[in-house]
Structure formats: structure tokens, C-alpha cells
Design brief:
Strand order of the largest sheet: 1-2-3-4-5-7-6
Number of strands: 7
Strand content: 35-45%
CATH class: Alpha Beta
Radius of gyration: 15 Å
CATH architecture: 3-Layer(aba) Sandwich
Structural class: alpha+beta
CATH topology: Aminopeptidase
Largest sheet: 7 strands, mixed
Helix content: 25-40%
Number of domains: 1
């Protein structure tokens, strides 16, 4: 397995990976909600790569994209030391250590960039993801009450952080 920065030419494969991961129902976007063309995805990748405190790493296994972790850095001076994270792993690659390896790569990158705080949110009932985040050193900072509506029902999220 290879963990690397995404490249613009990965856009089509990344779109496919994102769609499969969103089918889990545990991501911000509803399954099928995010409708990007390959060109729009390329532009999005270019924007992320152009920002020094943002990154998008992919896990490549057997020629396929198996997962990703994105870090979106703070946009103003007072938050430039922090980054909001989004993680996704293709279900065919669960329990193979991909998420942990993606986090390890991101932690190295963050240290090199002087990023001191990492943040993420997780749906309160997503116990597998919550356990992973705790294992990777994240702590609950608070609970976002009724932050999402899933299938017409209010759902809470935990706000988690890690200082590095």
C-alpha cells in the first residue's frame, strides 16, 4: 500500500471512491447528493494542493484508491495552526490498517507544516469511527446537538480534537 498526496489525474478515481464511501451514510453528504464532474473534481484538487496548510492524501492499493484523508487548514492567521479533517475508507478495505496509516501520514505532514491542532466531527452513533479516532489520540471537545438530520431525524455529532 502506498500513501501519497493526491494528484490531479486521480480525479476520476477519487470521485468513484467518494461515491462508494458516501453510500455508508456516515459522511456529511447523503448518498448520491454530491454531484461533481471530473473537471470540477480536478479543480477542487488543485485548490486544495495550492493551500500550504491543506492536503489530501490517498491510500493506493493494487492500483485502486482505497481511502483518503483530507486536511483543510484554517483560512485566517488566528486559525492557520489548525486543520479540519475528513477521512474515508472504501468498505472493501476495512480492517486493513488503512485509516491508521492515513492518520500517521497526516500527523507527519502536520508537524512539518507547524499545524498544532487537528479537528474532526463524527456522528455520535458511529462507534467504529469514534473508536478509531480515540485510538489515534483524539478527544471529545463537545457535542453538536441536532447538527445533522438523517432520514428526517435529528442526529448529534461529537466534535473531537488532537493537539500535536
Amino acid at each position: 500500500m502506498n500513501i501519497r498526496l493526491i494528484e490531479v489525474q486521480d480525479a476520476e478515481n477519487f470521485l468513484f471512491l467518494s461515491q462508494v464511501i458516501e453510500e455508508s451514510g456516515m459522511m456529511l453528504f447523503e448518498p448520491g447528493e454530491k454531484q461533481l464532474s471530473v473537471d470540477e473534481q480536478k479543480a477542487s484538487i488543485e485548490r486544495i494542493l495550492a493551500v500550504p496548510n491543506s492536503a489530501l492524501f490517498v491510500a493506493e492499493k493494487g492500483g485502486d484508491l482505497a481511502g483518503y484523508i483530507a486536511a483543510f487548514g484554517g483560512k485566517v492567521k488566528r486559525t492557520s495552526h489548525s486543520a479540519y479533517l475528513v477521512l474515508g475508507v472504501h468498505p472493501d478495505y476495512y480492517r486493513q490498517g488503512i485509516a491508521s496509516k492515513l492518520f500517521e501520514k497526516l500527523f507527519q505532514w502536520a508537524l512539518q507544516r507547524g499545524i498544532k491542532r487537528l479537528e474532526l466531527t463524527v456522528i455520535k452513533y458511529n462507534e467504529k469511527a469514534f473508536s478509531l479516532y480515540e485510538k489515534m489520540g483524539f478527544s471529545i471537545e463537545g457535542e453538536k446537538v441536532h447538527s445533522l438530520y438523517i432520514d428526517g431525524e435529528p442526529v448529534n455529532e461529537y466534535y473531537m480534537y488532537k493537539l500535536i
